Amino acid sequence: MLMLVPDWKPSPPFFGDYGECLKGHHDSYITYQTMGVYPNTVSIPVVQESYVCDVREYPNGDGPDYQQRYREYEARLAEWYKRHPEKA
Predict the structure, then answer these.
(1) For residues 15 and 55, what is the distance between their CA atoms, to the nearest angstrom?
(2) What burial class does residue 52 get, using C-beta atoms within 10 Å of its C-beta: 0-12 exposed, 13-18 middle, 19+ buried?
(3) b or e along 1-38 (b: 16 or more beta carbons within 10 Å of the residue's beta carbon)?
(4) Residue 27 has pLDDT above 70, yes or no
(5) Prior bond to 39 cis, omega within 30?
(6) Phi and psi dihedrals of 85, rounded to 5?
(7) Exposed site from 9, 13, 69, 73, fewest CB < 10 Å?
(8) What CA–CA distance (Å, rounded) separates 76 from 38?
(9) How far is CA 70 from the centre of its chain?
(10) CA pair distance 72, 62, nearest whole angstrom
């Protein structure tokens, strides 16, 4: 069976590499969980807590992993332009 695969132009890396979180804080907020069956329902407050990162190792998202993926993207893009010189 012959399958035709479209030759799409490569796209740059989508996700950045921000590295480790160097400094952050815990943030708490209240959500409400509804229990019971209508019309006999009750909303119970639930305290949720999450960790928020304030300072990252690479704040611009340009860590080593991103740089490696970007170099790979540039190589794929150059190959694509060789196959499609009319789009250069």
Answers:
(1) 18
(2) exposed
(3) eeeeeeeeeeeebeebbbbeeeeeeeeeeeeeeeeeee
(4) yes
(5) yes
(6) -65, -25
(7) 9
(8) 57
(9) 15
(10) 14
- Residue 17: DSSP 8-state: B
- Contact 73/25 with Cβ under 8 angstroms? no
Per the structure block, which two tokens stand in for 41? 């329902």
Find out whether 21 and 53 touch, Cβ atoms under 8 Å.
yes
CA 9-11-12 angle, 5° bins = 145
Residues 32-72 pLDDT 10s? 999 999 889 999 999 999 999 999 999 999 999 999 999 99
